[in-house]
Design goal:
The protein is of the alpha/beta class. The protein has helices at about 5-25, 30-40, 70-80, 100-105, 115-130, 165-170, and strands at about 60-65, 65-70, 90, 110-115, 135-140, 150-155, 170-180, 190-195, 200-210. Strand 8 (about 190-195) and strand 9 (about 200-210) form a beta hairpin. Bound molecules: S-adenosyl-L-homocysteine. S-adenosyl-L-homocysteine binds next to strand 2, helix 4 and strand 4.
């Protein structure tokens, strides 16, 4: 076996272990979500020097002060978004592109928006190299959503917001789900699911989480202190 094949086999084993230890053991039993987590190689989305940590149970730095989310969180959010194969999904906060690659396994099409142009460009390249063709990476302020392609069956926000951006609620299809970390602390939020039924929106709390701040017109100001 070549060194490259050996490395790949080790990473495959690490991924299988992560799925049992960090997902299934913590209650993620949704077979479609587990299938998506099995299909995407997280090592392709982490910086080269961190490849051996690709299946660690935590976020990892990806540069520009941002992180690739912890696998458990990616799976939990994908599950909470209740994605069907025909769904059109918006992700806010592309980062490494990993979350988008997982959503792309579950949905028909994914639009993902990133405010930092260098990260968007990098993620676009990684997704293309990984053979992911149903993700469209765009650059801009995702607190305003991406009206061009609205409405969405699901919107997943991967940065912590001080509240629920009205623009995102407005871009949900009837029956659509918006999953986002919301809270008045810049670090430390409540994972929140907003569901649209006709004109009504209902909210559920899904537990405590920690994300980098969502920065934009309907999010945090770049240097704003905590609200509470
Ligand atoms: N889903 C990513 C997680 C990235 S961390 C992954 O799997 O790697 C959150 C990302 O949200 C960061 O890249 C940050 O730059 C981005 N972000 C913060 N505010 C944003 C905004 N208003 N619009 C779009 N992206 C934003």
């Amino acid at each position: 076996m070549s060194n490259k094949d050996k490395k790949e086999t080790e990473l495959d084993e690490a991924r299988a272990t992560m799925i049992e230890r960090d997902l299934v053991a913590r209650g993620i039993t949704d077979q479609r979500v587990l299938g998506a987590m099995r299909a995407v190689r997280r090592e392709h989305y982490v910086p080269a020097k961190l490849v051996e940590h690709a299946y660690d149970d935590n976020p990892l730095p990806i540069g520009s002060g941002q992180t690739i989310s912890q696998p458990y969180i990616v799976a939990a959010m994908a599950h909470a978004a209740e994605i069907s194969p025909s769904d059109r999904v918006l992700e806010v906060g592309t980062g490494s592109g990993y979350g988008a690659a997982v959503l792309a396994q579950l949905a028909a099409e994914v639009w993902t928006i990133e405010r930092l142009a260098n990260l968007a460009e990098y993620a676009r390249g990684v997704l293309a190299a990984d053979g992911v063709h149903n993700v469209h990476v765009v650059t801009g302020d995702g607190t305003l959503g991406w009206p061009e392609e609205a409405p969405y069956d699901a919107i997943v926000v991967t940065a912590g917001s001080p509240g629920v951006p009205a623009a995102l609620q407005g871009q949900l299809a009837v029956g659509g789900r918006l999953v986002l970390p919301a809270g008045t602390k810049r670090r430390g939020q409540t994972l929140t699911r907003v569901r649209r039924s006709n004109g009504d929106f209902s909210r559920e709390d899904l537990g405590s989480v920690t994300f980098v701040p969502l920065i934009g017109e309907q999010g945090w100001k770049p240097d704003e202190p905590e609200l509470a």
